[in-house]
Amino acid sequence: MTLELRNPHAILAALRARPEDVQELRTTADGGVWGDLAAEARRAEVTVLSTAAAGPGRAGKGKPGRESAGRALVKERAETAIEQMFAQVAPDSVFLALDQIQDPQNVGAIFRTAAFFGVAGLIMPADRAAPLSGVVYDVASGGVESVLFAREGNLRRALDQARAAGLWILGTSEHAETSLHDVPRDRSWLVVLGNEERGLRRLTQEQCDVICAIPQSAGPAEVPVTSLNVSVSAGIVLAALRR
Questions:
Q1: Is a pLDDT exceeding 60 seen at residue 134?
Q2: Looking at residue 15, what DSSP letter applies?
Q3: Is 178 in a helix, a strand, or coil?
């Protein structure tokens, strides 16, 4: 499938990683980041089309001020077979699995965070989860291009394969008794992140070796916020494991 990308960082990452999959670049800008991007596209022999700037009231999808100065048509990145993903697990590897995360903004943010922390691979369900749309690629800001990913019909089976490859399974839940601070750092982990509203499914929790919670900082007795967005949780957990 072909996606329309509007984030210049996402487009540049695709151009550098797989220029053969970038079909076309359109831009209304002659200079700046889009001018540099057009030059990069021409070097990769990608068609570059200059278009007229959008007039008043033409901002993207009814959101004034959010119009991009360009876009690109890019084929989806091919996923990796899970057997290949787990073929060689390094002693300090960290992988991610997403348990029915629905919001593409969250999935994109998780990909960006995963790329930043050098996550070795990411697994997501083939169904009941956000598809890898252009929104995911744009929010990831290039992260989708540098993290191996697999879509699996059965997450339970994927976790079994991860364990067979030598990974420990770490679930995340605000209700867990084990603190993230107490999770051992001397092993390779696959971290499972749950749905935005329901968290981890019961069957997924049963697959975990450890379920941890991110501890709140000491403060007032009544704290108005008791949970975190799943993409923020991903960043905190990965930072802790990479410490």
A1: yes
A2: H
A3: strand
